[in-house]
Specification:
The chain has 403 residues and is an alpha/beta fold. Among the domains are: 87-273, Vaccinia Virus protein VP39 (Rossmann fold), CATH 3.40.50; 315-402, 3-Layer(aba) Sandwich (Rossmann fold), CATH 3.40.50. The chain is built from nine helices and 18 strands. The chain has helices spanning 46-50, 92-109, 125-131, 189-200, 215-221, 237-246, 282-313, 325-333, 384-393, and strands spanning 26-36, 42-43, 54-62, 68-69, 115-119, 137-141, 157-161, 176-180, 208-213, 233-234, 249-257, 262-269, 318-321, 340-344, 354-355, 362-363, 375-378, 399-402. The protein has a seven-stranded mixed β-sheet with strand order 7-6-5-8-9-12-11, with helices on both faces. A five-stranded parallel β-sheet has the order 16-14-13-17-18. The protein has a four-stranded antiparallel β-sheet with strand order 1-3-4-10, with helices on one face. The longest helix has 32 residues, at 282-313. Bound molecules: zinc ion. Zinc ion (ZN) is lined by residues 18, 20-21, 23, 62, 64-65, 67.
Length: 403
């Protein structure tokens, strides 16, 4: 697949309506072209992978509230009935975080014998963590939930509703409401948070907890492999707090966790509906980060494109290690990504499949014995040592580089 270095648009900047503060003050700052509409999916054949539906990935920045979003996002291209839970659920480090988070929330909000509702619960893994804290009932609302799902070792009442969250779900009478890694998939977050607020009723004091990826890190590191089609809404601590205050929540507190990759927000419904338009002095700093991101992003992609071309000229075999969304986003974003021979992944479920978009084949490490690589590109620096050792153990002396 041919991709071009993304252009930043200095001209033709039409003001767009921000889907967070709803003011017409957002402008496009980066156009990334067409990308697969699902970066997690792996296909059975190369043909299916290459013809997988694509959508336009564009980034706009709101100069009023700092929200970043894809104005070209088309929800019709996304299958919300599929769970987007990443393979991270198999990572001990990720599970340790979820367990610690559930315990922290249970302690802070005294959840023993309470009813907890989770919006966008996916397979129910986190609800089960919360349940272990001794709650009365846990209810998950998610179009991808399985209503017949029975969680192993469940001691209390967990149930699942296979629907998009709506105002009527306030009838579930939650004592605590949480929503993790869902808001970044919602194209109209103001309307969504308003629905959540209305569902609780005017007199409510139910604690509310939301979690999304933090965008400030993505901007600072120009981590282009963390920008996907499915993620249409990007928040920083300040822009997310501003949205919840605007939609009738108070006591808003944000924090970063999981190596500062995740943004956590706690709040409660406000009784009055006074919309104090607080000063948004953070937006100026953020707009500088956005400008810098645009530059860094293009430099980063151009750099990797040149690296692949040079390696190809020198007759080197380059492979990517990591068949998750980062690896798939990488091969789809970098012009000349087709010069990468294949993607290696240790998960047998992914092997012999093909990455959406470019159609790269996913292979197990054993394949490297017959097709020894000269360069192995590692998608997450955490795994560089582990992968280097694996390669040496196989007698492969390749250059291991972290992206
Ligand atoms: Zn805005």
């Amino acid at each position: 697949m041919e991709t071009a270095i993304p252009e930043s648009r200095a001209t033709d900047r039409k003001a767009l309506v921000c889907q967070s503060c709803e003011k017409p003050e957002a402008r496009v700052f980066l156009e990334l072209g067409e990308v697969p509409t699902n970066s997690m999916v792996l296909l059975d054949t190369k043909e299916k992978a290459v013809s997988y539906p694509k959508g336009k990935l564009t980034l706009a920045f709101c100069e009023s509230c700092g929200f970043i979003f894809n104005p070209d996002f088309d929800p019709a291209l996304v299958d919300y009935s599929q769970s987007y839970e990443s393979s991270q659920a198999f990572s001990p480090r990720f599970n340790e975080f979820a367990e610690r988070l559930a315990k922290g929330l249970a302690d802070e909000y005294d959840l023993a014998d309470k009813t907890c509702v989770e919006i966008g619960c996916g397979g129910g893994d986190f609800l089960q963590q919360v349940e272990l804290q001794g709650i009365k009932a846990g209810i998950g609302v998610d179009p991808a939930a399985d209503p017949d799902h029975r969680v192993e070792n469940s001691t209390t009442n967990l149930s699942f509703i296979r629907e998009f969250f709506a105002e009527e779900h306030g009838n579930l009478n939650p004592d605590f409401l949480c929503c993790r890694h869902t808001l970044e998939h919602v194209p109209d977050p103001a309307a969504f948070v308003r629905t959540v607020r209305r569902s609780l009723g005017e007199e409510s004091s139910v604690p509310v907890f939301f979690e999304v990826p933090d965008t400030l890190r993505v901007l600072k590191e120009a981590a282009f492999w963390d920008v996907y089609y499915e993620h249409c809404s990007y928040f920083t601590p300040e822009s997310m707090a501003a949205l919840f205050e605007q939609e009738g929540f108070t006591g808003v507190r944000t924090e970063l966790d999981f190596d500062d990759q995740y943004l956590l927000l706690h709040c409660k419904p406000a009784r009055s509906t006074s919309h104090a338009d607080s000063s948004k002095s953070y937006v100026r700093d953020l707009s500088e980060d956005v400008e810098a991101f645009s530059e860094k992003y293009r430099a980063h992609i151009a750099g990797w494109s040149k690296f692949l071309a040079d390696a190809n000229d020198a007759g080197k075999r380059v492979v990517v290690w990591g068949g998750g969304s980062k690896g798939v986003a990488f091969v789809n974003s970098v012009p000349g990504g087709d010069l990468i021979d294949f993607i290696v992944d240790i998960n047998p479920a992914k092997q012999s499949k093909f990455a959406a978009g470019t159609g790269h084949r996913i292979v197990g490490p054993d394949e490297l014995r017959t097709a020894a690589p000269d360069v192995v590109l590692v998608m997450n620096p955490i795994y560089v040592d582990e992968i280097s050792e694996t390669l040496l153990g196989m007698g492969i002396h390749a250059e291991v580089r972290s992206v």
